[in-house]
Design goal:
Blueprint: H1 4-8, H2 16-28, H3 38-80
Length: 82
């Protein structure tokens, strides 16, 4: 059965976590067929996903602070120009 990549003539998409798993397997010299390394990698992936959520929340908060500072700056400039 042909996949979408085959039909479009593109190389298959490789996810970054797939590359990380492959690199980890090569480093250890095994292919982890019994799944014994899956739990630590899943745990690490979960930690990184949470870190991404935390950083996004912090960025959103900073965006709000920046928007408020810009609004205050516009108001002060308008007062100075009167």
């Amino acid at each position: 059965m042909l996949g979408a990549d085959d039909l479009l003539g593109h190389a298959p998409v490789v996810r970054p976590w797939t590359l990380a798993l492959q690199a980890d397997r090569q480093r250890r010299g095994d292919d982890d067929r019994d799944g014994r390394h899956a739990v630590p990698l899943t745990r690490r992936a979960t930690e990184l996903e949470q870190q991404i959520l935390d950083v996004r929340a912090e960025l959103a908060e900073r965006d709000e602070d920046l928007a408020a500072a810009r609004a205050a700056n516009r108001e002060l400039m308008a007062q100075l120009n009167r």
